[in-house]
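ARCHIVE CARD
CATEGORY: sequence design from structure
SOURCE FIELD: tokenized fold
FIELD CONTENT:
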């Protein structure tokens, strides 16, 4: 575990001389080294089936953080940890300019794969290692970050650390957020030793994140690189339904106030709304708990979540309007009380055309197939998009599976994505 001092002085890496200082085009990341780090990080919080459970700010997250911070220091990065636990490792440039930043998250859902988030962080570290090996000092500094609680699976909202870092969520609200187990972000940061001293912030010249697609498009079309155009809007709501518990054998159907029935009807209504609105609208009830959760008792309490997403803000609002109307109507019909709380709300984000174009160009130059596509999942990059030129690189997810221990990406695609990241970061850092 780390002591609470959160900044180490910049350690200059001694750079071997390079034959041609402008020959970046031939530069490639070291695939085996990247795969080795991914496999090593995957041992922390490993779960059956080949996945990982490192919910934000748990002991497993702390161990993962310790490992990545150790790698950052080995690579000569100056490590800074801020008050919401974001970790930023900086490599000095030839000039003292705003850095080109990359990174992602290392927290996972409870049934996570080994690549979601982790690939973006470790590929960015692999870029640093590659530049160290090649003796390249970029004009601008490079910053590699991992952000606290991107997943939002334990604490809402998701993208919490990057939102605080880029000023769209205030620090105090983030620290006060209470998780599914009743503990707050502030308490848990202190407990695991990651309540840093730095004021959150990263004024980047540009931000580029490599991530697995987590959807089926690239895999189905046999395309290696996705040049991500933006991230769809996300609306998360928690519903509490309060009915009346009673005997399952003696209570006539007409007299019931059954919270489970309403939860089920809301789940069905959400699917209907998504189908009516058509793609790319999606709607999910991902969490549902009943009380008292016994075979012979009519449930008096249901706690459930709604996750609505669309690339178009007006249509996302339409899905919210329809969903909330259905909730009110279905609850009233059963005589169940309902209260709702917004957990997260992010408008759709568009990435910077110059970054998207550069990703396409480098993918093509490296001989990889590439297409543009929007992201269905939320990402830390979306928090940077309003503040600096931002983009993302996707690599295919086998069968489009993610948030699942079976999440996989072909190792060659991982290397291709990391090479495109290397070239994109280098070109931005030389500007
Ligand atoms: C984050 O992984 C999300 O999109 O829910
Ligand atoms: Mn992710
Ligand atoms: Mn995820």
């Amino acid at each position: 575990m780390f002591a609470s001092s959160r900044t180490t002085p910049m350690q200059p890496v001694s750079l071997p001389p390079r034959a041609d200082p402008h020959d970046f085009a031939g530069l490639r990341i070291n695939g085996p080294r990247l795969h080795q780090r991914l496999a090593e990080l995957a041992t922390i919080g490993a779960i059956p089936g080949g996945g990982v459970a490192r919910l934000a700010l748990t002991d497993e997250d702390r161990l993962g953080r310790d490992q990545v911070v150790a790698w950052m220091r080995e690579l000569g990065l100056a490590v800074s940890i801020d008050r919401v636990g974001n970790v930023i490792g900086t490599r000095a440039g030839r000039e003292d300019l705003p850095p080109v930043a990359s990174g992602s998250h290392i927290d996972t859902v409870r049934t996570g794969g080994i690549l979601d988030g982790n690939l973006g962080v470790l590929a960015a570290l692999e870029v640093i290692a590659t530049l160290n090996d090649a003796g390249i000092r970029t004009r601008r500094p490079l910053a590699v970050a991992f952000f606290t609680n991107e997943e939002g699976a334990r604490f809402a909202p998701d993208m919490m650390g990057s939102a605080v870092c880029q000023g769209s969520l205030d620090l105090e609200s983030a620290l006060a957020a209470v998780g599914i187990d009743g503990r707050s972000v502030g308490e848990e940061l202190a407990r695991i030793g990651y309540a840093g001293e730095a004021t959150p912030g990263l004024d980047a010249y540009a931000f580029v994140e490599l991530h697995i697609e987590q959807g089926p498009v690239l895999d189905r079309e046999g395309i290696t690189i996705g040049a991500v155009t933006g991230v769809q809007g996300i609306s998360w709501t928690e519903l509490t339904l309060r009915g009346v518990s009673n005997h399952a054998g003696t209570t006539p159907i007409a007299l019931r106030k059954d919270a489970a029935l309403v939860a089920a009807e809301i789940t069905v209504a959400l699917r209907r709304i998504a189908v009516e609105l058509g793609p790319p609208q999606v709607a999910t009830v991902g969490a549902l708990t009943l009380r008292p959760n016994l075979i012979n008792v009519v449930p008096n309490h249901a706690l459930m979540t709604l996750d609505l997403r669309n690339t178009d803000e007006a249509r996302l609002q339409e899905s919210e309007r329809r969903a909330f109307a259905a909730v009110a109507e279905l609850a009233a019909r059963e005589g169940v009380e309902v209260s709702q709380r917004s957990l997260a709300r992010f408008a759709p984000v568009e990435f910077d055309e110059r970054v998207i174009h550069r990703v396409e160009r480098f993918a093509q130059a490296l001989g990889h197939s590439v297409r543009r596509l929007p992201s269905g999942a939320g990402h830390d990059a979306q928090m940077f998009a309003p503040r600096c030129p931002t983009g993302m690189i996707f690599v295919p997810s086998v069968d489009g599976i993610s948030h699942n221990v079976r999440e996989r990406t072909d190792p060659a695609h991982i290397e291709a994505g990391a090479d495109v990241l290397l070239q994109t970061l280098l070109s931005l850092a030389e500007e």
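CARD ANNOTATION: The longest strand covers residues 233-242. Residues 52 and 370 are 29 Å apart (CA to CA).
SHELF: design records, drawer C
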